[in-house]
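Methods — Computational structure assignment.
A single polypeptide chain was analysed. Its primary sequence is given first, followed by the predicted tertiary structure written as structure tokens.
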Amino acid sequence: MATFFGEVLPVTNRAYNDAEDDEEATHDFSNPFTITFSSEEGNLSADTVILACGHFATAYVDCLLPADCPLLATVELARRSEPDGDALRRPAPAARLYRLGPRTCVARCDSVLADDHHYWLAETVLSQFEGATRVVALGSAPLAEYLSSAAPYEERPSLLVRCLATSQCKLPPLLTSLEPPNVVKGTPAAVLSRCCLARRAACLLMLYTSALRPDAETAAALHGALSAVVPAVGDLRPRPTRPPADAPHIYM
């Protein structure tokens, strides 16, 4: 089974042109994110961690979470100051963490990030769950980006789910692997790359769809794939939701 994916490295491992830098310029390679716990003990222990990345995955997670589900923690960009001392406006949270079950936590990551921040977001979230035995990332992309020689674009279904996994993760046979030359980008790639380097059991479930916004079919596709990997999720019934009329038509 092919498990090739684009490796995402922190900015400290990327080359840059020294000639373009001012001698007095300083480069901050520290983690730009901070995590704030909603409870005093800050206990985020779990056996399974699910990271829902992008609009389709987070919309599906919203259907799973109870309406009164308490917030465990929030991941935000650290507030920085301008040279004149004025604090910059803090953007929306990059991730919100909830407990989906007794031993399952989910991170809802629906924020647009700079390319250098995907690694740090994955690092910030996963470092809270070093004891977890399984990591699952959910992502999505337009169906037109899916590359396959099995069938031309016109003959493909309107949506499909493909998976990638580290060698430590055993996937059920009913899931179809994402074959080369497809490339995964953003936070899902960062999550899988970090787990691969750390030799952790992790998998990515990638939804390819022609839909412009989340609906019952996209939620059902993700629910079926995630239930195969995390059986406890299969016991949960997604709540039907109707997207607002002004829901953004975006892919992430």
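Note: Residues 30-79+91-234 form a domain with the Rossmann fold fold (CATH 3.40.50.10900).
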